[in-house]
Write a structure and sequence with these properties.
Blueprint (H helix, E strand, L loop, with lengths): L13 E7 L13 H11 L3 E7 L5 E6 L21 H10 L4 E6 H11 L6 E6 L7 H15 L2 E6 L3 H4 L6 E6 L2 E5 L3 H11 L22 E5 L17 E5 L2 H10 L3 E5 L2 H4 L16 H10 L1 H6 L6 H10 L2 H13 L1
Parallel strand pairs: 2-4, 4-5, 5-9
Antiparallel strand pairs: 1-10, 1-11, 2-3, 6-7, 7-8, 9-10
């Protein structure tokens, strides 16, 4: 039986920076596409992949895919808590039949899976996502409802970080269905407010501020994160579509990385450089004073509470309007490539 203390790696993982080699379908990932490379590799070997995806009601749940064509459902950052109802039992069944399983989740979710299984399986591969904390679904539901009321339709897709306009960035978008028409929304105050509240760390679960997995010893075979500021440490030639930070924490993770290394550009890195911005490698997110009353205020007046995190940015809005036009967007990208 696995003891809780043995869930975490025995020492800090080997650190890398990684970028996929311009495989178009991998660009849907928020950063670098390493998750997608691992998933495609194991799917090709008859494996099954578990990750978070929105259901038809835009509720975030952990689900399984067995086909590369459905990989897009699991790609991209999702800044809220996902449900794992019934998933661990399902995974155990697959493992006992000898099937390879790849599970991705937050550090606490990966740890929970391993504790549930009570033993290690050679055919289980895990990646923990370096997270700041997770808001509950009800706060996100209010954002969805605000968007649906404003645009008179149903939200059918939501990207917390969309590369379509801003490249590797932190700009959200959604798609609204009204009748037979689907409208793309790349800039809206409700989406900005949700993201700002998340970045300000005011809407996390209480346990996130005391997270025991917010450290350099990790629960997954491989840890995945953004490598913000990578250009200060490593000469990555093209980081527009994102650069992944990877920590390889176990021999199983190292073997898996070697199997996929030809699908990416891999650079040695220092975990200290990765942790400069990814501070949950050194401890949990600091609980801000505003957390004392965020949920109380939200319950009384959700609109007013979220409006407090709307930051009007005329310059950003104007850039969005320019970049959504294919001609001006091409011109802006061309200018960037010359600088």
């Amino acid at each position: 039986m696995l003891h809780p203390d043995r869930i975490l790696a025995e020492e800090d993982g080997k650190a890398y920076a990684a970028v996929n080699r311009d495989i178009p379908e991998l660009m849907r990932s928020s950063s670098g596409g390493v998750f997608s490379i691992i998933a495609r590799h194991l799917l090709s070997d008859g494996g099954i992949v578990y990750g978070s995806a929105f259901d038809k009601n835009m509720q975030l749940i952990h689900t399984a895919i067995e086909d590369k064509d459905k990989l897009h459902l699991l790609q991209g950052s999702k800044y809220l808590q996902s449900l794992n109802d019934g998933i661990f039992k399902e995974i155990r069944t697959h493992l006992r039949t000898g099937r390879k399983v790849y599970y991705t989740g937050t550090g606490c979710q990966v740890a929970a899976l391993k504790l549930y299984l009570r033993k290690d399986y050679d055919n289980l591969f895990t990646s923990d996502i370096l997270c700041h904390g997770t808001p509950p679904q009800n706060v996100f539901n209010f954002t969805l409802k605000s968007l649906e009321n404003r645009y008179k339709g149903q939200v059918v897709d939501y990207k917390f970080r969309d590369k379509k306009v801003w490249g590797w960035s932190c700009s959200s978008s959604c798609s609204i269905k009204s009748g037979n028409r689907i409208r793309y929304i790349g800039y809206d105050k409700s989406m900005d407010a949700y993201f700002n509240a998340f970045i300000d760390a005011v809407n996390y679960r209480e346990s996130c501020y005391k997270c025991p997995y917010a450290q350099s010893r990790r629960s997954g075979d491989i840890t995945l994160a953004d490598f913000w500021g990578v250009e200060k440490y490593i000469p990555v030639p093209n980081k527009r579509n994102g650069v992944s930070a990877i920590l390889v924490n176990t021999p199983k993770g190292q073997k898996l990385l070697q199997e996929i290394v030809n699908s990416m550009d891999l650079y040695d890195a220092d975990i200290k450089d990765i942790s400069v911005i990814n501070r949950t490698l050194t401890g949990p997110t600091t609980r801000p004073p505003e957390r004392d009353y965020f949920f109380t205020d939200f319950e009384k007046n959700p609109g007013k509470t979220m409006d407090a995190y709307t930051r009007q940015d005329l310059k950003r809005h104007m850039v969005y309007l320019l970049k959504r036009n294919p001609l001006t967007n091409a011109l802006i990208n061309r200018i960037k490539s010359l600088t």
